[in-house]
Amino acid sequence: MSDTVVGANPDPHASGDDPNRRDFIHIAAGAAAVGAVVGLAWPLIDQMNPAGDTLALSSIEVDLSKVVQGQQIVVKWRGKPLFVRYRTPKEIAEAVAGDHADLRDPQTDEARHKPGKPEWLILVGVCTHLGCVPNFGLGEYGGWLCPCHGSVYDTSGRIRKGPAPKNLAVPTYNFVSDTKIKVG
Q1: CA dist 121 to 25, 41, 60, Å?
Q2: Total domain count for the chain?
Q3: Alpha-carbon span 38 to 45, nearest angstrom
Q4: pLDDT tens digits for 171-182?
Q5: Which of 46, 84, 101, 144 is the most buried (most CB within 10 A)?
Q6: How large is the greatest C-alpha to C-alpha distance in the chain, in angstroms?
Q7: Is residue 1, in this structure, part of any structural domain at all?
Q8: Which position among 13, 26, 129, 149 bears the catalytic label?
Q9: Is residue 23 helix, strand or coil?
């Protein structure tokens, strides 16, 4: 008599127990799982990249040719207002006269503009107290007044009165030409 069990299939490939097929199914399932994880993780990782519109604002060029003496233009830079002021000789004289005043954040007017260009004052237009946007020409020192809590800045953007702890910030900028600056 033979040792074969009745109903048993002597061919291992016919029963579906092929080790090559089983390995393929495991590899395919693992690859599908990895693909699913990558597909789910990609949007989370991609959202951490800076938006295209903010990359363009990390540095900007500002044309000064249309700004007249005594005028201020405001441009958006890094999501904040940037004051570009073409100061009059009177404003410059008032700022220089304030160099020796008792200042909370001492800084000379000369340190707040580029050498040889005292008429151009470039400032980040955000109050250093709580981040409001100051208005020009309303303060008692001829400069800016923050409408939120009354911080007063002079014609050089230095804090003179009120709760603000520091002067209006001067960003990093360079003159590309006589009529154009690059900020950032």
Answers
A1: 70, 46, 16
A2: 2
A3: 10
A4: 999 999 988 999
A5: 144
A6: 122
A7: no
A8: 149
A9: helix
